[in-house]
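User: Please predict the structure of the protein below. I'd like the answer in structure-token form so I can feed it into my own downstream comparison script.

Assistant: Understood. Taking the following sequence of 428 residues as input:
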Amino acid sequence: MLRAELEKREIIEIARKIIRESPGPICNHCLGRQFAKVSSGVSNERRGEVLKEILSEGGEELASGKCWLCNGLFENDNLDKWVRAALAKLKQYEYDTFLVGTKMSGMLMENEEMMWEIAGALFAEPLKAELNREVGKRIEQETGKRVDFDTPEVVVILNLWSGDFDVELQVKPLFIYGRYRKYRRGIPQTRWFCRACHGKGCERCNFTGKMYAESVEELIKGSIMDVYGAEDVILHGCGREDIDARMLGSGRPFVVELRAPKRRQRVDLHALEEKVNEENRAKLEVTNLKYVNREMVARIKNANARKTYRMRVELRGAVAESELREAVQELDGAVIEQRTPLRVVHRRADLIRSRRIYGMKLLNYGGSTCELEVRCDGGLYVKELISGDRGRTRPNLSDLLGIEAEVKELDVIDVELDTGHETTEATR
């Protein structure tokens, strides 16, 4: 059947033109690849072999030697060398699915374009498509792993630019969801580079490159990075808390992204939880760890999360408890118009945002100080709800009392996600 398909006049004429106008010999793979769409269930090498038989029977002279198009890429044991190079890299990683890709060299791209000028591309497939398939089939046979065209855990990249069987791996990140509690003030959520040296290290930062010695991200990273053999660990939080705030109560939802992990299949998340918590005792605790997909990062970052804060407020003037309760009651349920606070406007867009307070109550009153609890929309800067921030937040407690008020201690005690954003299903 294959021979009958290839003996059609149009195909024979194209094949003859390829042989006559090519600047050198052509291998069976590269000849057959120009007719990859003619029939299915057969290799390009076999197509080329049959075409050469037909042309030879017709008196066509066929040159021998290294293929001018692929420069010998498909000849001898070169395919097996690519496979061995890939397997040497892959053996370091746990994976079930993979895909092969190719970085074409400039010479091979030029040769392929020249071939398509000679023969057209009506029946052809690209060189890299065949190389990907042939190497992929051999890796499947060697490892028992399977090719996945949609979401492979590892992508094997054959770099034809180097000319030295150079293989690169693109390893799919792992994502773990959980909640963290931060018990110590002065720890930022993520690493802050030094403003003076931008991470290079200088006298101001004691040559650490950082504004703060540690962060939630770095604490978690230090406990899990080696477990997975990852290149890096990035924390994606559901909102941020101030550096001087604690994160208590239910904890803040987060996703950690483990980049290029060597392990991904046999890590016990319950044991991992215990490890993180033991190594960061009195600073940090994580709970409810689960494997999730990449989409969870966007979901928690875009979540409409309501938050509950508890704060100790200093009152810089005389105020009766009854006046304080009236002011708190007036803020309870109010819509707050808030311009980006002065303390963060250098790194955030200077906008006016509307945020609602869903509950506000006075917990304790001590004359010059009080303790308040506020439940509100995410994105409300609660320190400025108290101070007014020179009129940038309205209404605010300072204006309602007629005296200055300032948050001295702040704790986040709850971050409420929509039920659709929490997950109970472990996925990879």
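That's the full token string. Residues 423-428 have pLDDT under 50 and may be disordered.
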